[in-house]
Amino acid sequence: MCKYPYCKETEELCDTNHIMIGKNKYHTVCAKKFNAKKAIRELYYERVSKTVVFAQLNKTINNIIDDKDVSPEYFYFALRYAINHQITINYPASLYYVIDNSDIKTAYKKFTQKKLNKEVKAEPIESKEITFTIDPPKQTGWGIFGG
After folding, report:
1. Contact, 36 vs 73, CB < 8 A?
2. Cα(33)–Cα(66) distance, integer angstroms
3. Are 72 and 36 a contacting pair, CB within 8 Å?
4. Residue boundaries of the structural domains of the chain
5. Which of 9, 17, 25, 41 is the most buried if burial means most Cβ atoms within 10 Å?
């Protein structure tokens, strides 16, 4: 059984589809969300406010990732972008405005596009040697009149 409290996965855990964090088993998707929430929490605490009420912060993070189905990768990117571009974050509820910021959305699209382009360039391209044979049509005469 997956230990992620907001698990939406329907398949049972088996030896091939789980990740162990500590002594607990998680689906791979749930483990990514769990680790992303931890990283977001630490980033907020380190760079935004060390006096934050963790109950409010956790509730906001859980609501954004689990209830609103915002990608954890996008959420982490948006928080980093807001910090680096000095967008004001006064309290945890202002994270809702951060994820809806149009500048952040366009920056994330550019970021993911660059990431995809790098992945495409990194893949080796298979090349096969192709040989062509051309049989020119036989011409009789000068070829002017098709004869």
Report:
1. yes
2. 9
3. yes
4. 18-108
5. 25
